[in-house]
Structures are given as C-alpha cells and as structure tokens.
Write a structure and sequence with these properties.
With 492 residues, the protein is an alpha/beta fold. It has 16 helices and 18 strands. Helix 5 packs antiparallel against helix 12 and helix 5 crosses helix 16.
Length: 492
C-alpha cells in the first residue's frame, strides 16, 4: 500500500530550570531505550541538542527536529517543565504534538530525584488551552519509561492520520445521484480540517477515459486483475475496460494532486455511468482502495475522508458500506442465537455493490450489479466484486459535516460474524453491541447518512482520538446497556 504518510516522531524533553536538568536527560534516554526495546525505533528521533528550559532552547529544538525531518512531536516532561517554552514548542511545530510526563521511579529517591511532572502536566494543559493549541494528551499521560513508550506507539496512528489530512486532496467526479441528499458534503469543514477538494464533471472523467483507449499498459493491468480474481474471474470480457478505467484514475491522481501528497476519490457510479462507460466501477474502486487510495461510491466525499482516516490508522484496506438491512429472524435463530452472544437488534447486514478489496472477502467473484440490471441491460452493469466479507473484528465509523456545517462523528467496534449472508454484493453479517440503541439515538437522531466506513480490526481508540484532535465536539459511540443516551426514554 502507498498514499499513506511515513512518520518520523521527534522526542524533545523539557525541564523547569529550578529542577535538575539531569532528571529530564536521563529520563529521556530511558524512554528512548524502552521504546527501542519494545518497538521498532526507526520512526523516532531523540532530539540531542538541548533540554528545553527557555524560549531560546525551544527555537533550537524546533530547528533540530525540523532538520531531522520529523513530522510529529512528543513533548516529554522529564520534570515539572517550563509551561511557556513547552507550549510554544507545540505552537510552532508544524504537525501533530503529544504531551506526556515522567512518573517518579523510586521511593528511595524523592528528594533530589523527584520531578513533579504529574503537577507540570496540569500547567502544560492549562497553557495549551490559553494559546488555543491542539495537542494529543493520552487518557493517563504520566508513566514509567516503558509506559510512555506504549503511549508513543499509540500516538502513531493518530499522528499518521493527522499528517495525512494536512496534505490530503479529495477528488470528486460529478454531483451525487438523485435522492442521495444524505451524502451532502458542505466543503467549508473540509477546508477547516486542512483538506483540499477538487470537484470535477463526469464529462471530464469520460473524456480522460476515452483518451486511455488502447493504452499500452492495459494488458499488464488485465493480467494483474486475472491473478487477483483467480477462479472468480467470471466476466473476463470486461477486464480491458476496467483496466482502462483504473489507469485513467491513477493518471488523474498524479496529474491533479498538485502540491498535496495524498489523495482520496469520491466517484460516481450511477445512474448514467453504466450506460456511457459500459460497466460499473466497483472492482476498480476496490483495487485502488487496496492500494491505499480510498474510493467512495456515489460521490460520498465525507465517506472518502472517513476511509482515508481509517487507512492511515489501520495501515490496511478499508471499505465503505451501506448500513443496509436487518438480519432475517430465521437466519438469526439458525445461525447466530446460541452461537454468538448478540441479540437480534445487535446485528445487521453491511452491503455495497462490489467495492470491498478482495483481501477482505472470504471469496470473490466478478459479477454484474443485480440492482442496476433490473432496469438496464445486464452487460452494462458488469464490474462488481461480490463475496461475503471475511469474519473478524471491525470498527464502524464516520466523520461528517452536517447540512448546517457542524462536524459530527461516530465510532463503534464490533465484528463480522462467520455467517453466510445468502445474498449478493460485497456483504457481511455485522454485530455491534447495543446496535439497536446506537442506530436509533446516534445514526438516526444525529442525521448520519447510510454509508459507514469500515476498518478491519478494533481501532476505535485511535479513531476517537483523531476526531477529538480535529475538534469534533460530538462523537457518538455504542453506549453500553445502563448508560442512557440523552434522548433515550428511561421507561422503555
């Protein structure tokens, strides 16, 4: 996969000048040693220039981490810390910043060896707020060298997403289809997040596609598709057109990303796409998403944004699915009840026509789009990648700007059950604890669209922290039984 930021995290220790500087020096060294022992230390950089005690030291440290190529920063309170200099460090660093603090090591060394960073973290947080500076502070930000090493490791997916968003361009094609008002995309919040948007006509895309006819690279892409599909290559005659379309999108990305480093695509797939292009783009969308370039369906711009965040957090392919249909009662009774600890309302089926990466399907086949073929000739609806989504842990989430330009988000963890769907498309039987209540009091009540991004694993903690760092004030989640939503009837 590519199109994902590579991180280099600078570690800068700070010290209040009335505390022994050696406390911060030794604790910084212990932190770096602990990180290198537990994790691959290639992505961290220990700033050796100075311990930051003053504004001059702050400038020197900033210059050092900048020259070292750091794009994320850890401000480490080895002792109480200088509240002005350390927060100016965060203010002037161009990238995400985390604040953590050293715990005391021994009851036998609480005179000259006491650092009071537990107290200093309070002053640091107060000063960050005074200056309107965003910083990531872990749930419990004070720890031993080993515990702080764990905090840095947990910061990486958050920082990677934030670095990615700061250099992201979303490329869209066409307006959303008729009756898809739910996928509205007020662009003001994209700019507030630091994301660029390039909106194009479907005619622009169609012209570029036609110019790629007889592209000499098409046969090699077809061979790669054949290898990926294997026995699931049920529509070999459509592969050259799909390869032509894939090359069109990849070339468009390179020609149009401009000064941005990363790209996501919000693509059009109906109603006129099939009749004019002669296929549906689902399989190509799945392949680009598998490469690290998320492609959302139905010009869902905030869906593409959400997918990109999931890609950066998980370092893996994601997908975008309709929160689609209930699990029939007979299926629940036969396949789920007694085998899995979920109520019927905890379950639902997530579906899209065929946009999920083949690596995330139990098995896959190239087919035609059954819903579209009800009103169109079947031959123009070929190009979907169908199969049941592989069982395993998932995180369902979305970041959305409302019609009145407010940022909202949700995160919920669950799993895809090992239950045959007996249906079509890229589809799975999903289970999320207390999904029924979450569906009513978050998804419906907060006016979220029917598309949800899916990361394959439990990444709720990191995604929640990304949303917090971005300033999303209202982040919904699947609240456990006994924890009422504000609007939930306590007498239900």
């Amino acid at each position: 996969m590519y199109n994902i930021p590579e991180l280099k995290v600078g570690i800068v220790a700070v010290s209040r000048d009335c505390f022994p500087e050696s406390l911060s020096v030794n604790r910084r060294k212990a932190l770096v040693e602990a990180y290198e022992e537990k994790y691959n230390g290639e992505n961290i950089y220990e700033c050796p220039v100075c311990i930051v005690e003053s504004e001059i030291h702050m400038v020197q440290a900033l210059e050092d981490v900048k020259n070292a190529g750091c794009n994320a920063l850890v401000v480490y309170l080895g002792n109480f810390g200088p509240e002005i200099s350390e927060t100016l460090l965060a203010k002037h660093f161009d990238g995400p910043v985390m604040f953590i603090a050293a715990a005391e090591e021994s009851g036998d060394n609480l005179t000259q060896g006491r650092g009071d960073a537990y107290c200093g973290m309070l002053n640091a947080s107060y000063n960050l707020k005074l200056r309107n500076i965003k910083a990531y502070i872990p749930e419990y930000p004070v720890g031993t060298a080993a515990e702080c090493a764990d905090m840095i490791e947990e910061f990486l997916p958050v920082a990677r997403s934030l670095v990615g968003l700061s250099s992201l361009k979303i490329i869209s094609f066409g307006p959303r289809p008729l009756n898809f008002l739910a996928c509205n995309a007020p662009i003001k919040q994209l700019y507030n997040l630091g994301v660029e948007i390039e909106e194009n006509s479907e005619l622009d895309l169609f012209e570029a596609f036609n110019k790629h006819a007889d592209d000499p690279r098409i046969p090699d892409v077809v061979k790669d598709m054949e290898k990926e599909l294997g026995s699931g290559n049920q529509k070999p005659e459509i592969l050259p057109k799909l390869a032509q379309y894939e090359l069109t999108l990849l070339d468009w990305v390179e020609a149009h990303k401009g000064y941005r480093k990363y790209v996501a695509i919000a693509g059009k797939c109906w109603p006129a796409f099939q009749t004019q292009f002669g296929f549906v783009p689902c399989y190509v969308n799945s392949r680009l998403t598998g490469m690290g370039i998320p492609v959302s369906c139905e010009v869902d711009i905030y869906g593409a944004l959400s997918e990109f965040i999931g890609t950066c957090v998980s370092l893996d392919a994601v997908t975008l699915l309709d929160i689609n249909n209930t699990v029939p009662a007979d299926m629940y009774e036969e396949d789920i009840k007694g085998n899995h600890d979920y109520t019927h309302q905890d379950t639902f089926m997530g579906f899209h026509c065929g946009n999920t990466c083949s690596r995330k399907l139990s098995a896959c086949s190239m087919k035609y789009q059954m819903i579209m073929a009800r009103t169109l000739p079947e031959e123009v609806t070929q190009g979907t990648l169908e199969g049941d989504i592989a069982p395993g842990d998932i995180t369902f989430f979305r970041l959305q700007s409302t019609a009145d330009n407010l940022l909202r988000a949700y995160v919920a963890q669950g799993e895809v059950l090992p239950v045959a769907t007996r249906s079509f498309g890229s589809i799975g039987v999903f289970a999320i604890p207390e999904m029924g209540r979450f569906y009513r009091h978050v998804l419906i009540e907060k006016n979220f669209p029917h598309h949800g991004a899916v990361a394959f694993g439990h990444y709720g903690k990191a995604i929640f922290e990304v949303f917090k760092y971005l300033g999303v004030e209202e982040i919904g989640f699947n609240q456990p039984k006994g924890m009422l939503y504000k609007s939930e009837n306590p007498f239900s």
